[in-house]
Amino acid sequence: MAYSEKVLDHYENPRNVGSFGKDEEGVATGMVGAPACGDVMKLQIKVGKDGVIEDAKFKTYGCGSAIASSSLVTEWVKGKTINQALEIKNTEIAEELALPPVKIHCSILAEDAIKAAVADYKKKHEA
Amino acid sequence: MRIDPQQDYFALFGLPRRFELDGAALESAFHNLQAEVHPDRHAHLPEAEQRRAMQWATWVNEAFRTLRKPLPRAIYLLELAGVDAGLETNTAMSPAFLMEQMEWREAVEEARAAGEADELEHLRQRLVHHGREMLAGLTEAFDRRGDLDAAAESVRRMMFIEKLQEEIDDALEALES
């Protein structure tokens, strides 16, 4: 299958790969997985005191589209508040990367990863 | 011909509709049916009936492939019961399980990069063991507890194990060549 240029770009030069220290201030983690293809995605956000996401990192085991989707969202969430980050829709990710229909689930995975990371943040900080 | 396309795959082979399966019974029922629907046996019949025999042959093959391996069989059993395994949509696996998957994938990636075939073989052995445990859990959920939600959860987990298995096989193959 032919990948779009944008997918290839993120795949070959993934942005923000890696992890934050588990106990770093303001760090929250979202773990999601796609049973259909066995992809696993970890998205971490580092949130400042003002509720704005300062930095994000990811690690994804999956196909090029899954890697590109997670790489893209690490760029998109930076500078957004956690609630703004929740507004990112998988359809926007799929559109930006020109994902074919069979790869839409990769964009869903990335959207769900943001939700999981924000949920983790809220659990830690609003309790 | 006594094949009824309305019946499910278990009924087709005269097997009980459950997860645990008598592999030898499936095999022999399959060969009997296969002989029955073989196109050569219908070569003397009118074209329409030959075509129907061909469709049956395809259907019997599909049925056999579905029941033969545990994972497709489990997915099919859930389908028959009207339970959606959520393979495409359910991304909210337990974080502990996903973390474990990530660690497995990292270990495979590192062993592959370092060219450590022994380590990969070791990982494969551990995975086989793990897979057997999950299979036992699946049998328990389907056949003894009738807990289809638990069965669906196990099926989702086993999809990851299957993927991991492929990754290890790929890595071993790459190192051998």
From TrEMBL, chain A:
One family name in Pfam for this protein: NifU_N
GO biological process assignments: iron-sulfur cluster assembly
Molecular function GO terms recorded: iron ion binding; iron-sulfur cluster binding
Gene Ontology terms: cellular component: cytoplasm
Limits of the NIF system FeS cluster assembly NifU N-terminal domain: 2-125
Entry function: A scaffold on which IscS assembles Fe-S clusters. It is likely that Fe-S cluster coordination is flexible as the role of this complex is to build and then hand off Fe-S clusters.
PANTHER family: IRON-SULFUR CLUSTER ASSEMBLY ENZYME NIFU HOMOLOG
Family listed: Belongs to the NifU family.
Protein name: Iron-sulfur cluster assembly scaffold protein IscU
From TrEMBL, chain B:
UniProt entry keywords in alphabetical sequence: Chaperone
Family from the record: Belongs to the HscB family.
SMART domains for this protein: DnaJ
UniProt key word Electron transport: no
Gene Ontology cellular-component terms listed: iron-sulfur cluster transfer complex
UniProt organism field: Pseudothauera nasutitermitis
Underlying gene: hscB
InterPro entries cross-referenced by the UniProt entry: DnaJ_domain, HscB, HscB_C_sf, HscB_oligo_C, J_dom_sf
The name this protein goes by in its record: Co-chaperone protein HscB homolog
GO molecular function, one term: protein-folding chaperone binding
Subunit architecture: Interacts with HscA and stimulates its ATPase activity.
Keyword Chaperone in record: yes
Superkingdom per UniProt: Bacteria
Domain J residues, every copy: 8-80
A GO biological process held by the record: [2Fe-2S] cluster assembly
Coiled coil regions in record: none
Stated role: Co-chaperone involved in the maturation of iron-sulfur cluster-containing proteins. Seems to help targeting proteins to be folded toward HscA.
